[in-house]
Amino acid sequence: MKKTLSFLVCMGLALSACGLKVPATIVAGSDAELNGITDPADAAAIDPATGDVLDPTVIDPVLGETVEGPVAGDSIFNLEREGVTRDKITICAHVPITGAAPIQHHPNRFGQFYFDAVNAEQGGVYGREVVFRAIDDQYYPAGARAAMEQCAREGAFIYFGAAGTDQIVSVAKWAETKRVPYIHGPSSDKDMAGLHYNVFAGPSYEYQHKLLARYLVKRYGKDQVFGTVHVASPFFESGAKAFADELKKLGAQHAVTIQVQKDESQFSNVFFQLQNAEVDIVNNFTTPNIWIKMLNQKPPTYDPIWTAVSPVAGFNIVSAALAGANADAVVFHNFGPACECQTYTEAIPPPKSLPWYDDIQEFLRVFKKYSPEKDPAPDDFDYSSYLAAKGVHRLLLELGKDPTRTKLFELFDSYKEKPADVYPGCAADFTRGSSRVGAWRVNVFDLANGVWKQTESCIDSV
Amino acid sequence: MDAVFNGLLAGIAEGAAFGLVALGIVLVYKATRVLNFAQGEIATLCLYIAWELTELSVPVFLAAAVALLLAAALGAATELLLRPLASAPRLTVTVATLGIATVLGSTQLLWFQTNGRALPAFLAGEAIQIGQISFKWTQVLALIVSIGLGLALFAFFKRTLFGLGVLAAAQDQTALRLQGVPFSQVSIFTWSSGAILTTLAGLILIPGIGPFFPFEMTRAFLIPSLAAALVGGLTSLPGAFVGGLVIGIAKNLTVFNWQASGAEFMTIFVVMVLVLLFRPQGLLGEEA
């Protein structure tokens, strides 16, 4: 008994030392209880007139006073305005700065540089400074969840995941338990089925791979032998399967699917299997690092055509490594609706005739002025980050002076009814795909000719 | 049969790489009874320095020489850091080397960020193609160097007084001191040599694999090389090479013949357990 008491006392002291508070009165039926908040000071305020619970984070932007917010239970979210104050609104993201597929950028290059421009030149959004915090997830699911927990501790309105298939699925499930909105990069329909708190404003892996298969068969014919190399993870399987299934449906041969570990450094067995199966076109559904290592170890007697969907190919390091190799169609998307393939590729400067030429010039201006590094060289991912941040900016503008999470999801749901003009002259199309995995128009990059084409016209014109 | 033959060939090539890294592990263990986890990150840091030098147009051989000297210095620094733990249990020292590895890896992240670097090879290109497996010069060099170094170190420990002193230090430091052999010199030599061997392995092998990143040597080689050292015998230098071959062949026969993801790790583990069950000292190790 004494030992138990001593243990409890020690635990209490330890918790206090960690800044956590010993449970006191919990306001019943409130966001506090749902959130596991145990300090009365953190609990929601009570309207003295009605006895209703008020969302504690609702501050009228004009009056600066607490105003009535939706009562817990009306909303699917824990809190409607977490991360929103009179002066600031916070978006928090997990990004792979280190790990098996690192994006070699300063954290502010993942979106904050764009919002630095918005804050400095436009006074933020409805007078609120926008903070876009990026935390390294080490390209590792547990790392992504730890990053999101950090975001939760600091308070964020929207949780954001840039890239990393396994990480995105893991965090989407985390968001489900925490009841927070999570907007993220590429994922599959299958792995997101049944989840309600995540949104991917882009085509699923299954859809991207179907389009890739159609494009390749149209371009190269059914007589080519196809093969796929993908990361040994269940979250890559559905995309790889969709590719193989679509090829089969089109009468083409998909001979082999090979799985590789994320940290693999030797690929002689991969090339052995590809050569044995006489694969002409290899779909590389892995990571940039793996692809580069494979290219380095490719036997000189084997020269397949390489192809990929966006997550792998949207990196300058891959483009550079592919230079001189046979490479073709990269089905690409962006967080925002890239209806005409709004991609800046350093290796291929955009001609003035491109519809989005002006947008790229604006990106370059913003990046050079607000990038955290001196004399930075922008790359593909910087432009992707710029477009993603621009999309978030547009969303925040549409949400108005009193942004809530419910309104955010209602906005996404409205895009399912009709394409929305989130970008000037470019419609977002949510009419395809499953509940929370949308499908913007997909774009194909004809690497051989250095030309981006919108999917339908690209496949039709081949 | 094709898959078996090609798996064997690929296994020999990869096994030589594991053996070369395992040599460094065995050398330090043989002399100190400590598994030095810091060697991998000393090597990676030295690879970064070598890369920086090549970017300044320093010839790759000279850059490699500087990297090896730096490895020696870092190995010596590790020894000095760990010297207060000379009388501590060996497990404590092993854990301390893990800490040093983490610090070195974090230093790489701090100084070089996550940018991948591609180091030029001593000898680039394909050396020979046998069957469907093409061997790069880096792999052939790894094979030659690991055999040569293994034999040379074996002779060093058996035939030279200093080498005997290194072995004696592992067994009884006091007796060594009483014989007038400066223990500190022996100890510094051991840790520096381990670091040099692992860095040499990195300089030979990494250019053939592709760009390297922070923690690369640990990520790419630590587990299989540790397994190689255990299988060959932690006290046997030729055993490190033999262990490397065994692990390399086992791994590649698995990946060439069995498409289940992660099966190769299971194979490495099973091989390790089987060897240790029937021969706890390893294939060529000495009985305690």
Can you describe what's shown?
The complex is a heterodimer of chains A (462) and B (288). Chain A is an alpha/beta fold. Chain A has a domain at 2-54. Chain A is 39% helix and 16% strand. Chain A contains 16 helices and 16 strands. In chain A, helix 3 packs across helix 13, helix 7 (205-220) runs parallel beside helix 8 (234-249) and helix 7 (205-220) packs parallel to helix 16 (455-461). The radius of gyration of chain A is 24 Å and the shape is globular. With 288 residues, chain B is mostly helical. Chain B has a single domain, classed as ABC transporter involved in vitamin B12 uptake, BtuC (Orthogonal Bundle), CATH 1.10.3470. Chain B contains eleven helices and two strands, in the order ααααββααααααα. Chain B has helices at residues 2-32, 38-55, 60-82, 90-112, 137-159, 161-171, 173-178, 183-209, 216-232, 237-257, 263-278; strands spanning 126-130, 133-136. In chain B, strands 1-2 form a two-stranded antiparallel ribbon. In chain B, strand 1 and strand 2 (133-136) form a beta hairpin. In chain B, helix 2 (38-55) packs across helix 9. Chain B is globular and about 60 Å long. The interface between A and B is medium-sized, with 30 and 32 residues.
The Rg value of chain B, from CA coordinates, equals: 19 Å
Number of helices of chain B: 11
Taking pLDDT < 50 over at least 5 consecutive residues as the criterion, the unreliable ranges of chain A are 1-45, 49-54, 56-72, 329-347, 423-448, 450-458
CATH topology of chain B, anyone? ABC transporter involved in vitamin B12 uptake, BtuC
What overall geometry of chain B do the principal axes of the alpha carbons give?
globular
Largest interface: A-B, 30 and 32 residues
* Oligomerization status of the protein chains: heterodimer
- N/C terminus separation of chain A: 79 Å
Shape of chain A: globular
Overall average pLDDT of chain A: 71
Q: Summarize the main sheet of chain B.
A: 2 strands, antiparallel
Q: Give me the Rg of chain A, rounded.
A: 24 Å
Give the spatial strand order of the biggest sheet of chain B: 1-2
Helix count, DSSP H or I runs of 4 or more residues of chain A: 16
Largest sheet of chain A: 7 strands, mixed
Beta content of chain A comes to 15-25%
